[in-house]
Design brief:
Membrane topology: Peripheral membrane protein
Mean pLDDT: 92
Helix content: 40-55%
Number of strands: 8
GO cellular component, one term: endoplasmic reticulum membrane
Distance between the termini: 61 Å
Bound molecules: protoporphyrin IX containing FE
Subcellular location: Endoplasmic reticulum membrane; Microsome membrane
Protein name: Cytochrome P450 1A
Order of helices and strands: HEEHHHHHHHHHHHHEEEEHHHEE
GO biological process, one term: response to antibiotic
């Protein structure tokens, strides 16, 4: 990329010098979120690094990120055209493809409305308040039973393989009207690919920035292509099945809603943006893909913190016992009445910062931020981890303390909560945020109402996050569970 001249009176953002050809790629090889946080202390909230010969803008600091993504939202709403993103959803991804114009806007709106009808909108046909509540309650119940069975047999185990299937079942129910057994090999193969996907899709994968690396054999990249291919085939097969049984009088799920939209658009003339059928149908790839790994990773951190901090777990369970009791299951309407549990979830997001960067952004036009000149099409990394661990914002940021989100009167502090960055901000902020937050609340409260989580004493547990699009702790097979009220039949 040619460096554009900087207009008079403005400067380019500061940053480390780096090596010729490689730029700062060697420094960024391991834990880029930590390296870039350290560098931001020296160079400031608006900093430029180079990956290969490509300049990358790195944003830190809550105020600066709000300024860029919200106040100057139009300027920073683009996505960079990175080679690896071409493999995601056949290059048609709503989240990763470089489009941020009218077509992206129309697709995002469509995705939001199709998703809403099958998740958080009030449901006339369901006894729950909405379909999301129905799906999550059901899956969380299955999970309790599954955990008890596995514990009985194994005495200690890895929770994550079960979590990911349950969470995938919720998004499958909404998108495809389908659920899978925990032993289903096809689904298991698919949902266990989250790590391979996240390794390449994370911010700063060298092959995206250094062209010569694309011509060298790379196992990671081959696996990434394969993961995307298998994922697309899986979705394509389900979409085909939906086409053959489609009935416009009976829209069953998000996929049907999207097929219906394809058929409708050909008769409606008021649309000023024409979306191809492919662009409409591929929306479901994004929703399904974004909907399981994120929420499953959040639950996995939540249960790890509960097990590591027994006194915190006890406070959540006391709150659940007092507010909900033992005779009924938690419901979404209980949110707001469980401030400690909500504070725990916020602290899980903050402390783990398991999405250390948003998906990379890019500038849609030349702009100025905090007095620095940023050319059009600059790739931008947004460091959420830095904000969540910023000593200017948080007292003792490395401590896990849900109380930091509570007022002295024990209420949840909105202002403190809004300082946590997990879903991005502005025009590109996560479109599944409400669904994600509600799912996490209902899964965690249902599990913690019935079960006590601990780690087998003496077994090594390493919760250092492994860098990726979503960061996980190292595989942990030391979880143990106990039924809190043995002998009580499941509600
Ligand atoms: C984008 C976080 C759950 C769908 C994003 C982004 C983040 C994020 C950080 C990128 C924002 C940016 O680039 O500035 C999370 C977290 C979740 C979660 C932490 C759960 C704990 C979900 C769910 C869905 C979803 C359940 C859908 C059902 C999407 C989509 C985008 C996105 C489609 C792309 C938006 C765009 O580019 O316009 N999410 N997400 N996410 N998320 Fe989520």
């Amino acid at each position: 990329q040619q460096q554009q001249p900087v207009p008079e009176g403005l400067r380019r953002p500061p940053g480390p010098r780096g090596y010729p050809v490689l730029g700062n790629v060697l420094e960024l090889r391991k834990d880029p979120h930590l390296v870039l946080t350290r560098l931001s202390r020296r160079y400031g909230d608006v900093m430029e690094v180079r990956i290969g010969s490509r300049p990358v803008l790195v944003l830190s600091g809550l105020d600066t990120i709000r300024q860029a993504l919200v106040k100057q939202g139009e300027d920073f709403m683009g996505r960079p055209d990175l080679p690896s993103f071409h493999y995601i959803s056949n290059g048609q991804s709503l989240a990763f493809s470089p489009d941020s114009g009218e077509v992206w806007r129309a697709r995002r709106k469509l995705a939001q409305s199709a998703l809403k009808s099958f998740s958080i909108a009030p449901s006339p046909t369901s006894s729950s308040s909405c379909l999301l509540e129905e799906h999550v309650s059901k899956e969380a119940e299955y999970l309790v039973t599954k955990f008890l069975q596995v514990m009985e047999k194994e005495k200690k185990f890895d929770l994550n393989q079960y979590l990911v299937v349950s969470v995938a079942n919720v998004i499958c129910a909404m998108c495809f009207g389908k659920r899978y057994e925990h032993e289903d090999q096809e689904l298991l193969r698919l949902v266990n690919m989250g790590n391979e996907f996240g390794e390449v899709a994370a911010s700063g994968h060298p092959a995206d920035f250094i062209p010569v690396l694309r011509y060298l054999p790379s196992r990671t990249m081959e696996v990434f292509k394969d993961v995307n291919r298998r994922f697309n085939l899986f979705v394509q097969k389900i979409v085909q099945e939906h086409y053959s049984s489609f009935d416009k009088e009976h829209i069953r799920d998000v996929t049907d809603a999207l097929i219906g939209h394809c058929q409708e658009k050909s008769v409606r003339e008021d649309n000023h943006v024409q979306l191809s059928d492919e662009k409409i149908i591929h929306i479901v790839n994004d929703l399904f893909g974004a909907g399981f790994d994120t929420v499953a990773t959040a639950l996995s951190w939540g249960l790890m913190y509960a097990a590591l901090y027994p006194e915190v777990q006890k406070k959540i369970q006391e709150e659940l016992d007092q507010t909900i009791g033992r005779e009924r299951r938690p419901r979404l309407s209980d949110r707001g009445m469980l401030p400690y549990t909500e504070a725990f979830i916020l602290e899980m997001f903050r402390h783990s910062s398991f999405l250390p960067f948003t998906i990379p952004h890019s500038t849609t036009k030349a702009t100025v931020l905090n007095g620095y000149y940023i050319p059009k099409d600059t790739c931008v990394f947004v460091n959420q981890w830095q904000v969540n661990h910023d000593e200017m914002l948080w007292k003792d940021p490395s401590a896990f303390r849900p109380e930091r989100f509570l007022t002295p009167g024990g209420e949840l502090s909105r202002t403190e909560g809004e300082k946590v960055l997990a879903f991005g901000l502005g025009k590109r902020r996560c479109l599944g945020e409400t669904i994600g937050r509600w799912e996490i609340f209902l899964f965690l409260t249902t599990l913690l109402q019935e079960l006590h989580f601990s780690l087998r004493p003496g077994e090594p547990v390493d919760i250092t996050p492994q860098f990726g699009l979503t960061m996980k702790y190292k595989k942990c097979e030391a979880f143990q569970i106990q039924q809190r009220f043995p002998g009580k039949s499941s509600l």
